[in-house]
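To whoever is on call:

I kicked off a structure prediction for a single chain this morning and the downstream step that reads the tokens threw a length-mismatch warning. I double-checked the sequence; it's 92 residues and nothing unusual in it as far as I can see. Pasting both halves so you can look.
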Amino acid sequence: MATRERRLAEFNGEGEPPPDLPVQVLCEDQSGTYLLPFACRYIDGEWRNHESGSTVEATVVGWRLHRPDSRHASSSRQPHAVSKCNGESTGS
């Protein structure tokens, strides 16, 4: 299992990605870090599912350019889309 620091190092996106750019996001909860199994976009201070446009309910701790063939998700958990994400940018 990858350490938190190693996972964060893989997600070196700084600031906010352009809103039209789908990216992979690294999220964190009480159990650890995990990748969402879908691409996301950061629009108007909210992380959104790239396909559905639903707001992501998760604590996003990093982002990187989307890798459509990535199979490294540490969990198949999918957050429910409804409430606002924390909206904090990484690198601050």
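Update from on-call: the warning came from a stale cache, not from the record. Cleared it. Sanity check on the structure: The radius of gyration is 12 Å.
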